[in-house]
Amino acid sequence: MGAPSSGKRDHQKLKSYIVLDYLMKQSDEEHTVSAKDIIDYLQEECGIETEPRSIYRDIDEINKVLYMLENECSIQEAEEAIDDPECGEAEKFIVYDPNRKGFCVRQRRYSADDIRLLAECVYSAKFIDEKRAKRLADVAASLVSQWQAENILHDAFLTDRTKTANTAVYYSVMEINKAMSRGSREAPHEPEKITFKYQKYSIQDVTKTIDRRKGEPYKVSPYRLLINDSNYYLLAFDDRSQEMRTYRVDRMKAVTPTGEPRDGEEAFKALDLETYTQRVFGMIGGERKHITLRFINPLLDTVIERFGTKAAHYSQVDEKHFSVMTEVELSDQFFSWLCGFGNRVKIMEPELAEKFTAYLDKIRSLY
Fold it and tell me: Which has fewest Cβ within 10 Å: 35, 47, 153, 263?
């Protein structure tokens, strides 16, 4: 009888890793695989000959190594823990289920619920295009069994969200991060300005976007990437206005670092990011004003979610009402937000109340 080929002997070095990968994909607490299933897979798919006792040894070694890595201990300590007759079984990553007569991965670093949440967040993000969202969701789902992955991906892709058509978002994010980077100790980098063209829709063809400012590039000093309402925004110091502004990243194209040192350091340091995002997002484009609003008590949670607690002052007015004093962008967007509450909110400053009344009169004049 001839000796086994050197190729098959070399493949033995990979066997433990392949066994772990197979079990990760094919098993969970509801699905098991037998030693024969593993042997058949190794032989038919990988060209590796083996026997049941070798599979048992591989699984035993895998459990020890994973325990060692997870608990940052020595291999000797891992062996003692795994071989402990009283509690060793509870520490194993891969266990044998005598009822189903097979092995399964019982402990994972991430639960199926964790991966489901990640996949749904990725797929619901508007700034990620459809193709990339599916690829990233697949990456997340690879951390659980194929049975769990099928359920997770099916549920995630039922999410009904408008996706960006701008597939260059990731290129833009990469260039923005490169411009904001300070590099490393070996290769330091001074944060720099970027230029880009900013897009908008046109009524002439709503399926396409056109350049704002007739194609004139924007030049800004980038400081932070922010996410709000599933959209990616860049917070930057604008060269033209000399103010901090936010820009939708999926509407930016041709993002290019300029090599010019970044401006606006003092303006950025003066910002409280939490307060800024609460004030700006959803109420963009108006004069900043301090305002006092009176709401009915059941709306307290809603108002706190909008304005936060750090830069807003709340007080009880009477048994049915509370007031909030805060700074807002006084704009049509803000007034439309107030309209959603009907008679459950009241502006307390007469001057601002007159502006709100004028806004309502402007709407009424259309009908």
Answer: 47
Task: Using the predicted structure, report yes or no on whether residue 136 has a pLDDT greater than 50.
Answer: yes
Give yes or no for residue 5 having a pLDDT over 80: no
Query: For residues 88 and 343, which has the higher predicted lDDT (pLDDT)?
Result: 343
Dist. CA 183–CA 190, nearest whole Å? 8
CA distances (Å), origin 20, targets 55, 67, 105, 145, 349: 10, 14, 9, 12, 67
Q: Quick one: which of 251, 234, 248, 250 has its CA closest to 193?
A: 234
- Start-to-end CA span in the chain (Å): 96
pLDDT for position 1: 43
Sorted by sequence, the CB contacts under 8 Å of residue 65 that are 6+ apart come out as: 75, 78
141 within 8 A of 112, measured Cβ to Cβ: no
Burial class from Cβ neighbours inside 10 Å (0-12, 13-18, 19+) for residue 243 reads exposed
Instruction: Give the type of residue at 61.
Output: E
Task: Report DSSP state, residue 4.
Answer: P
**Cβ pair 305, 256 in contact under 8 A:** no
Taking the CB of residue 55, how many other CB atoms lie within 10 A of it? 21
Q: How far apart are CA 152 and CA 173, in angstroms?
A: 28
Which ranges of 239-349 would DSSP assign to H, the alpha helix?
A: 265-269, 273-280, 300-307, 332-339
Contact at 8 Å (CB) between 328 and 288? yes
Angle at CA 309, nearest 5°, toward 304 and 312?
95
| Radius of gyration for the chain, computed over Cα atoms and rounded to the nearest angstrom | 29
Q: What is the pLDDT of residues 189-228, one digit of tens each?
A: 999 999 999 988 766 775 678 898 989 999 999 999 887 7
Q: DSSP string spanning 52-105?
A: HHHHHHHHHHHHHHHHHHHHT--HHHHHHHHH-TTTGGGG-SEEEETTTTEEEE
* Cβ-based neighbours of 194, under 8 Å, separated by 6 or more: 175, 176, 179, 219, 220, 222, 236, 255, 256, 257, 258
Closest listed residue to residue 279, CA positions, set 306, 302, 250: 306
Q: Would you give the DSSP letter of residue 257?
A: E
CA distances from 288 to 39, 184, 195, 245, 326 (A): 70, 39, 27, 14, 10
